[in-house]
Amino acid sequence: MDSAPVSWEALDALIVDFAKSENLLEDSFSSSPPSSPSSSSCSSYSSSTSLSSSSYHSRLTISKIRRSLEAGDIDAAMDLLRSHAPSILDDRRLLFRLQKQKFIEQLRKGTSEGRDSAMACLRTALAPCALDAYPEAYEEFKHVLLAFIYDKDDKTSPVANEWSERRRYDIAGLMSSVLRAHLNTYDPVFSMTLRYLITIHKGYCFRQGIVSPVSDLTQRLLLDERDPPAIARESLYEAPPFDEVDVQALAHAVELTRQGAVDSLRFSKGDLFLAFQNELCRMRLDVSMLDELVCEYCVYRGIVDSGLASTSASEMQAILEPKVNQLEPRCSSSRNCSLEVDSGANKHSDGETSINNTHMDGSPENNADVSSMQGMDVELRYACEPSSNHEDCSTSGLHQSENPRALQRYRTHGTGERSKRKRWRGRHDDKCGMSFDECNGLELSTTTLVSSSYTLKEQQGLGKHFILDVNSREDKYEIVLGLKELARKGMAAEVVEEVNAMDPNFFMQNPMLLFKLKQVEFLKLVSSGDYSSALRVACAHLGPLAASDATLLKPLKETLLALLRPNEDALGKGLPLHALSTSLQVAIGSRLGIEEPQLMKIMKATLYSHNEWFKLQMCKDRFESHLRIDSLKEVNTPLHPSVAMSNLNADTSTLGSSQVTISSSAKNSEDGNSPTQASSRDVICDENSILKVMEFLALPRADAIHLLAQYNGNAEMVIQQIFA
């Protein structure tokens, strides 16, 4: 199965929203909101925080009620209901179910006290409630009395179902469904999006008879069972008929029967999207596994700190001392060598710390071996003054294998950004989740995080020219994130320099990335008015790269057009730096043995299935914007600057562009019909005919269209032939 491109930035936003909504993150240094320049922005922040906090605490309350019911503690659950949603207990149907389960749980204790409590519950609560709960309630009441006679371990008794602990989970799920709607508290958007995409992915793979490349993940992530549906109040039983377009859309989106879709719409009072949310939240996710996948993604993207501890000055001195001793023999009497460590000094204006390694006369010089000092605000200055015979002690040539360590400075490029990262908090208020320490130290069974003992020299093709030896997994993450941040800021020349120092063969194997980076450098020089330097970059790099790859000639020509429009923001319009930085992160990460997060693999596979599924349905997904699926598909690429130079926002995620767009509702068309090209025979089927076949024959949309194509779009003829 192929995969679809995914917008990392859109997924970042969904993931951060999910993690914050579930209270999984905490600020690295302070949990207080950032100071705002105006009272209006402060008010907006406070309002947003208040809403998020309120929703989180409501979900936490629902979770507590659920756990109490699953444990058989009905009294604790009812106490919570009285405190947070007292009107729920006014519904006699729900109250009867709770009292019936309480009666069973008292008998389950098997003690005389439990039997007495069950009898009291029977007389004071269950029997009165059975009289007016619902028509079948009194019969159920008489039936449950058999629990006095039949033992709970008798699997053949008439009340074996009542004794089953499965009943606990059924009523817990039912109450969760009711409470979500009552408190207007739903799961975060990403959680619902994931449920929906995996559901479509499974259906598509089953229909096409193909094996999912992520089945090992999706099978464990999305559980088979669902919570029971919430029950509509009796006053809604006589609701007017719903639009058949809405009924069919809901039924096929979340795999319901037609009657199930009607009941769901009745409960939501005809609100299609509210019914859709209710049904998605009924689907059960393995929350612990989801948290693991989200944590892995956040570490990969630099949203969450990888867990590196800060190092004190005394610890730094202990690290540096043996390194100084190693350097002393290299300096002869004719050279004046010095090593200076300046903690927190020489910070750039953007919050980054640099490591400068130069001769006193300006020539580059060898770096000290300080690979264990990652993540510190350290400036290492190693000066080597040449002797009178002008002997050059520099060994900083990129292809010289004698230099075992190089460019330590890029490890601190992300220091400023790292301070903005969050710390993984975990679900401390819920039993299903991970703490920060568990996530930080966990080798996920579903991931391929690199072992700390893995060395880059073992990778095929690196050989002696890979002059940076990185053993720690945390080191690798910091390297990748540091380079990603440089690319995001448009510091293309610095990125190329440091990648070459790290791995001279990298751009030989990734010429397209080099071309993109040199485009950025060219456009920055044009924007600054330095046309001669821009042309030197074009002649030295862009031209030779285009000469070796004919597909780059057109982008090169369009890039050069920036010279004719010097006043335009060529860089801002021409190349989305976030996309370039992400491409660099993926490529460098792969080079270092860091695979893409498993969550991204799931998203690529499921978005591809989503595109292909709605090609088969020959319609647009009515719910994709509601779940932000459309934004996940909006992938901008810096590969073709001609598009950007023309100020066009091209979407490279066009796997679904060939699908025929159909009006999602017949009422959106003046004549009530929405023509659809159903097959290669160019048979036109109107929307009403498609819906009629779907309704009468209980068929998926694609099958209904296929049958109509065989009978020239005549729905009556299709139905007659089927029932003939």
Automatic annotation (TrEMBL):
Superkingdom of this protein's organism: Eukaryota
Taxonomic lineage of the native organism: Eukaryota, Viridiplantae, Streptophyta, Embryophyta, Tracheophyta
One protein family per Pfam: CTLH
Protein name in UniProt: CTLH domain-containing protein
Residue ranges, annotated region (Disordered): 27-53, 338-370, 387-427, 659-680
Biased composition (Low complexity): 28-53
Residue ranges annotated for the CTLH domain, each copy included: 58-114, 476-533
Biased composition (Polar residues): 352-370, 394-403
